[in-house]
């Protein structure tokens, strides 16, 4: 079987050296080596997240920490801002956990605005809000700098951000934005296999969680934090040490590339895909807020995306159809993690060749 190089928005193509680190021989999760491993990972992640706050890992996918955040840190009511499928998922998580929440959804392809956030928070009803940084179902990146300015007027509100498909692919200055819990997964712009979730966890989030009586168990962020603090950077249950070995190594690679270089490479890949998309199709999301890690094309030519993908597969590539209700209306090309401009150009050339564009 030909390996298909993945241009889907997670899981992404993983570098062979990084994959090999998953096969590192096991160590005890209560050993000094395990503590050292977490210390190294946390120090490097703090650089990537632009934060001085604590870093938590969860052996779950990113959804685990999203659920943990809304449950562990909402005391009154959560304001959930949604620009697509993943924003809606956060609302469903709140409801499933009996966490009081209101959903503020915009039309898919549009952004959450600072005005919307200000208006909702000014009611005084909410003590937690969630924002999607990069909405993978629509290909939109929210204007988080402006949103953050609005949130700063409400210091009682814990600010949670879903950066699952963008952290590692674009600059997200967690502390400067005032984000208390910034969440990502390993299998997207970080370029690792799926199975581990990562978040920053601020002192403010810690204080809030202490007041929340029923935080669940496995995804109780306060219990993860307490263990990190009291047991020298270990976890209440056995973490995926294999992912931690690979993450430690991949973070070295990311920092060796240089964060600014990495973000610039993503910007260039986004621009290449957008200009291709504008030339042959149309872009789905609002032009002012396009994602730097994936591009969502409107299927204006009525192509058979499944058939295209089948032919691409024979040539060793895979792209993605639309998400959820956009399944046949759009198709998506991810350009994140360790993908190069040349690889992306090769994909686009193959699509042009197959579609005779
Ligand atoms: C993929 C994705 C998620 C879900 O992450 P999992 O790691 O699959 O649980 C959440 N939000 C966004 C924006 C995503 O792209």
Q: What do these coordinates show?
A:
- The chain has 357 residues and is an alpha/beta fold.
- The relative contact order is 0.18.
- The strands form four sheets. Strands 2-10-9-8-5-3-4 form a seven-stranded mixed beta sheet, with helices on both faces. A four-stranded antiparallel beta sheet has the order 11-12-15-14, with helices on one face.
- Helix 2 crosses helix 10 (241-257), helix 10 crosses helix 11 and helix 11 (259-280) packs parallel to helix 13.
- The protein has helices spanning 16-21, 32-49, 62-73, 85-96, 114-121, 144-151, 174-177, 203-211, 221-230, 241-257, 259-280, 305-314, 341-355, and strands spanning 5-6, 54-58, 78-82, 101-105, 128-132, 134-135, 140-141, 158-162, 181-185, 197-201, 282-283, 294-298, 317-318, 320-321, 330-334.
- The protein is globular and about 60 Å long.
- The protein folds into two domains: 5-11 and 258-355, Aspartate Aminotransferase, domain 1 (Alpha-Beta Complex), CATH 3.90.1150; 25-255, Type I PLP-dependent aspartate aminotransferase-like (Major domain) (Aspartate Aminotransferase, domain 2, 3-Layer(aba) Sandwich), CATH 3.40.640.
- The model has no long low-confidence stretch (mean pLDDT 98).
- Helix content is 42%, strand content 16%.
- Residues 9-10, 61-63, 86, 132, 134-136, 162, 164-165, 185 line the site of pyridoxal-5'-phosphate.
- Pyridoxal-5'-phosphate binds at residues 9-10, 61-63, 86, 132, 134-136, 162, 164-165, 185.
